[in-house]
Design a protein that fits this description.
By secondary structure, the chain is mainly alpha-helical. The chain has 7 helices and no strands.
């Protein structure tokens, strides 16, 4: 006997859960294919609207991110006329190759984000704040130095040390998760 049909409210909750959980991955996929961050953000919004419109076509239990990225792929292709005015325009074959690679890398990037979040938590609060301030939108080394009470030179040195520390930590965590040695 087939399962009872899903109510509209349950379907909407499931849709919102999936979009919220995977929005970062979908955006990362789009951003690998679109040279401008603002254009990528616009395409994410357009893609999200299409996902909402077509969610009844999604098969539960299948890969939501792959399905959503396929929708993003078609939105990007549809919007290419807008990007044709850019100085760099990729042909469809190159765009398809990059899209394929980005799709394959999505899981690894998600693992790296999780590992990085864990590694950031291992830093002292002062060092963590320096790194987070440096990479927050609209900020830079000068703002990170100011907020942390460091000189510019000290901030640059600390950031170089922390980048290496975070890189090594993420590499070690991923190797450990995969059963390797770091």
């Amino acid at each position: 006997m087939p399962p009872p049909p899903e109510s509209e409210g349950d379907s909407r909750k499931r849709l919102m859960t999936l979009i919220t959980r995977h929005q970062r991955q979908i955006f990362a996929y789009i951003y690998t294919l679109v040279p401008d961050r603002h254009d990528a953000e616009d395409l994410l919004q357009e893609t999200s609207l299409v996902i909402c419109e077509k969610f009844d076509e999604f098969t539960p239990g299948t890969d939501f991110v792959a399905w959503a990225c396929q929708i993003a792929w078609w939105r990007i292709r549809y919007s290419r006329q807008k990007f044709a005015r850019a100085k760099v325009v990729f042909d469809d074959e190159l765009l398809a190759a990059v899209a394929h690679t980005a799709g394959e890398m999505a899981a690894e990037l998600d693992e790296r984000h999780v590992a990085l979040a864990g590694c950031l938590q291992k830093l002292s609060p002062r060092d963590r704040e320096l790194v987070l301030t440096r990479y927050e939108p609209g900020s830079g080394v000068a703002e990170a130095a100011r907020r942390s009470g460091r000189s510019m030179e000290a901030a640059y040195k600390a950031l170089n040390r922390l980048r290496k520390l975070l890189h090594d930590c993420v590499t070690h965590q991923l190797a450990h998760q995969r059963g390797g040695t770091a």
